[in-house]
Design brief:
The complex is a heterodimer. Chain A is an alpha+beta fold. Chain A is 54% helix and 16% strand. Chain B has helices spanning 6-15, 17-49, 74-83, 124-130, 195-201, 220-228, 240-284, 286-294, 299-325, 352-378, 382-387, and strands spanning 56-61, 97-108, 114-122, 135-139, 148-152, 167-170, 173-182, 191-194, 209-213, 235-239, 332-337, 342-347. Chain B is elongated, with a radius of gyration of 30 Å. Classes of the chains: A alpha+beta, B alpha+beta.
Chain lengths: 389, 389
């Protein structure tokens, strides 16, 4: 172990350089954490998916609707406890840029099938009683200032109102999800409201069901229930594919395609940049300390100690910078999540991300320190002492 | 008015070549990330915008933003096609107008996973309108009224069952792949077949858009205005170029924001590195500055000299960054078109604009990185500088 106070003195000898290098490391490590957290957010829904829920969707396309008649047929399948219709509404609040998801779903089934949805304000009964009621996620509610009792006007892009007006939903509750598979940004309303409006001609749009969400009876075999449902509609009119909730979520990640690769390439660029920054600083430091190294060696310190001083200097530098970056990433988790908010829910700086960042920091510290350390080890006392500046 | 000779700075960059190299590479990595993101944006945007025609108009349902959520009933499409006077109607042939069906279908990727591939049911009119823009590369065109499709050239290697001779099952109907076609724009990522056959197989008895070639001298602005308030078929009219351009705005915006965000964050780190390097240069040359000052060079000349050196560092970094990004040019990639939720294949394009932005950015990094050291150098007094070791 080299004398640590010497390591620290060397490190802070040039304060500006120390702060600038540590600062750029901090920024870069923070950026790495942020990028990784974005990729993690893509997968969050997959990881938290419930095992007893199945999704029945069209095998042909995300945009193909299933006949209403499928509902009772699915409900009668052995192993199916509950079935809920679920339609993407695709509207927006005031302006298309105010994006949050709205879903029409069978109001009586929602609470039973999605126990993770917990009201933090308002009453379930109130939601169930009023045909035009809705519940809104906490994130969306706070972003747009929706309160229980407010009326939320939504412009139907996919389901336009015939008279050109907005769909008005009364907020009966604000919810918070206790798991990541449901975000806190969605607005849920009565399927019946949409259905009646389409029947009466009050609104227009696709008449079928987007997806059916199935809750399995306890103890039933998942694979069997899935193939029983698929078999029902093998001959059409619309072929379905029944998947677990995890697979359903995973398909969206797969459809986004190259994004994880793209983010990794950026991460690679960031790593290169910080590696160079740390290396640059360590080489400059090592050159300036050449005479000190000579003095240490002349005093009888071994090659190992002398090399250690430089290696530890590099590690300490990176620990300061990287550590600050990691702290920054952890501390900004909530504000960043809030900023990404309703558009990109699920941002979370996991401990795995922080550990990966710590690993990257250590790697940079070692790589930047090894060169100068080896050089110091190999220097002869005479050469080292002769050098100036 | 005497500048410190520029050769002095260039030589000192060579003398301190390790630090120069590391700094240049660090700036280069930052610039390369920015250039890469911009090249992605350029590739995506030009694929759409440059291949849209001004003499072809697209009719969408009012209020819809893309052909995925636009719908025309058979009657409404017929009215459009039969009655509009602005459409080119050759005396010796059918009018240049076509109603199309569009659906993003779920397909397996070659490497596993699912993605959304646009499938377009076209009438023969589409081929008459687009003419040579659609080029058959292999096999033959599909026969009208038969369960056959042709596939875009970018699908063969990415999507399962998309080679000539394969059979593609849509819902319950098998379609034979009889040809492969090319197009300079986004059509090369699509599957095309006979609209009536596809509509029946997919149970979609509607059209999604109508396209037409404008008659010579037709007044586009007038047509747009007329159709907006048309009593029978109110619809949104855009030229093909405008339509394709509108498809890129969301993704281009995301990429620009991402590019700017990464550039800002990584840029701060790069500025820190450059400042470090310049501070070290200053420390090593304090003596020389003393000499320069005693020779009669003014402080502003010293300031300019250091800033120049830093700008050279930035410029070199910019050039290196462009060189690092250049191999990306022409590399095929895929990305999600958020509007229709389908995957589009395109190539990165490192355009001159991208390089100009990249190099300007690198000069800015050099300028910012050099400002503090240059100011410090300029504030030295000759005696003080000469005395320093």
């Amino acid at each position: 172990m080299p004398p640590l106070h010497l390591v620290w003195r060397n490190l802070t000898k040039r304060k500006a350089r120390f702060l600038l290098t540590a600062g750029s490391l901090a920024i870069a490590i923070f950026l790495l954490c942020l990028l990784r957290s974005l990729v993690v957010a893509l997968d969050a829904g997959v990881k938290a998916a419930a095992a007893d829920r199945l999704i029945v969707q069209s095998k042909v396309s995300l945009f193909v609707y299933l006949p209403q008649s499928y509902g009772p047929k699915i409900a009668s399948v052995e192993g199916v406890e509950r079935v809920m219709r679920w339609n993407w509404f695709g509207g927006y609040y005031q302006d298309p840029s105010n994006f949050f998801a709205q879903f029409a779903c069978d109001q009586d089934e929602l609470q039973a099938i999605y126990p993770e949805i917990q009201l933090v304000d308002g009453e379930w009964d109130d939601f169930l009683r009023d045909r035009k009621a809705c519940i809104v996620g906490e994130a969306t509610a706070s972003k747009y200032g929706f309160k229980v009792g407010d009326s939320v006007p939504i412009i139907g892009a996919l389901f336009p109102k015939t008279d050109g007006t907005t769909w008005d939903f009364r907020v009966a509750g604000i919810y918070k999800s206790i798991k990541k598979n449901v975000d806190d940004a969605t607005l849920f309303f009565h399927y019946k409201y949409l259905e009646n409006a389409l029947d009466s001609g009050e609104g227009s749009g696709p008449a079928g069901v987007g997806i059916f969400v199935v809750k399995m009876a306890p103890g039933s075999d998942r694979t069997e229930v899935m193939s029983r449902i698929d078999a029902l509609f093998e001959q059409g009119p619309q072929v379905v594919q029944t998947t677990t909730e995890a697979e359903f979520q995973a398909q969206f990640v797969s459809m986004i395609g190259n994004v994880p690769l793209f983010v990794s390439s950026i991460g690679g660029g960031v790593m290169v940049a910080i590696l160079l920054a740390a290396l640059n600083t360590m080489l400059m430091a090592a050159r300036e300390q050449t005479r000190d190294i000579g003095v240490l060696k002349a005093l009888g310190f071994g090659d190992g100690v002398v090399a250690g001083v430089l290696l530890w200097q590099s590690l300490a530098l990176c620990a300061c910078g990287g550590g600050a970056g990691i702290l920054l990433a952890a501390a900004t988790e909530d504000p960043v999540a809030k900023m990404l908010g309703t558009v990109f829910p699920g941002y979370e700086v996991t401990s795995a991300t922080l550990w990966a960042a710590a690993g990257a920091t250590l790697f940079v510290g070692l790589v930047a320190g090894v060169g100068p350390a080896l050089r110091a080890r190999g220097l002869s006392v005479i050469d080292a002492l002769r050098r100036t500046g | 008015m005497a500048f410190v000779p520029f050769s002095y700075n260039l030589r000192s960059l060579v003398v301190r070549r390790t630090a120069t190299l590391l700094t240049v590479l660090g700036i280069g990595a930052t610039v390369a990330v920015l250039a890469g993101v911009l090249a992605l944006q350029q590739g995506f945007a030009t694929l759409f915008v440059e291949n849209g025609r001004d003499d072809v108009v697209v009719f969408l349902r009012q209020g819809s933003t893309n052909e995925g959520d636009s719908v025309f009933s058979l009657e409404r499409a017929q009215i459009l096609m039969k009655t509009l006077p602005d459409i080119e109607r050759p005396v010796d042939g059918p009018p240049l107008v076509s109603a199309e069906m569009y659906l993003a279908v779920r397909r397996e990727k070659v490497g596993g996973g699912e993605t959304n591939v646009p499938i377009r049911g076209v009438q023969q009119g589409t081929f008459r309108i687009l003419g040579d823009d659609i080029r058959l590369l292999e096999g033959r065109a599909f026969a009208p009224g038969v369960d056959e499709v042709v596939v875009g050239s970018k699908l063969a290697d990415r999507i399962a069952d998309c080679r000539v001779g394969d059979t593609l099952v849509l819902n319950t109907t098998p379609f034979k792949v009889v040809g492969m076609f090319d197009h300079s724009g986004p059509f090369k990522s699509e599957i095309w077949g006979d609209r009536d056959r596809l509509a029946e197989a997919l149970e979609r008895p509607v059209f999604n858009r109508v396209i037409a070639k404008l008659k010579d001298g037709a007044d586009l602005a007038d047509l747009k205005e007329r159709m907006e308030s048309d009593p029978q078929v109110p619809c949104k009219v855009m030229t093909e170029r405008e339509y394709l351009g509108s498809q890129t705005t969301a993704f281009s915006f995301v990429l620009r924001v991402l590019g700017a965000f990464l550039a800002a964050i990584m840029g701060v780190a790069a500025v820190f590195t450059a400042t470090n390097t310049m501070l070290a240069a200053l420390a090593a040359r304090t003596n020389e500055i003393g000499i320069l000052l005693s020779l009669g060079f003014k402080p502003w000349a010293i300031f300019a000299s250091f800033l120049f050196e830093s700008l050279v560092l930035g410029l070199l970094g910019g050039v290196v960054g462009c060189l690092m990004a250049l191999p990306l040019n022409g590399v095929d990639t895929g990305a999600m078109n958020f509007q229709t939720f389908t995957e589009v294949a395109f190539a990165f394009r490192v355009t001159p604009e991208v390089m100009v932005v990249a190099v300007s950015f690198s000069l800015l990094l050099g300028l910012l990185g050099g400002a503090l050291p240059a100011a410090r150098a300029a504030s030295l007094r000759p005696t003080q500088a000469l005395r320093r070791d």
